[in-house]
Design brief:
alpha/beta, Aconitase, domain 4, 7-stranded mixed beta sheet, 8 helices, 7 strands, globular
Amino acid sequence: MKFTGKVLKYGDNVDTDVIIPARYLNTIDKKELASHCMEDIDKDFASKVEPGDIMVAGYNFGCGSSREHAPIAIKESGISLVIAKSFARIFYRNSINIGLAIVECPEAAERIENGDVVEADLDSGVLLDKTTGESFKTEPFPEFIQRIIANGGLVESIRKGDFK
């Protein structure tokens, strides 16, 4: 499972209310959620994110509520992968469940900068900052998580008969 994209970088303790403000939770329209993703911390996010971009963040990314809207908004915005120093536990699980690739790598999250181009090989667990040439090692994705993400989430994996 490989990803390449331009980095949009954020800090520590980015909570679900920042990822998708509660005032937009009256819709289940994924495109509508994506159009408001990160707007309270980065008002230009929706207009500058491109399909395949990679989000990098600090510690405790996705803290706050247990809403699945947050990873849905990120994924639907075009972000292909989120790299962080650490994730809130329920956000991590919700991300996998909806098919958003995420990986913890504190060293990479610290050193990769906004605007860098990153190549991630989650089969081998190698993150390469193509802008600086630095390489970082993380845990490879287990095969079952790769299948969930490739299928577009856990529900889609079950619908396709991948998990019984």
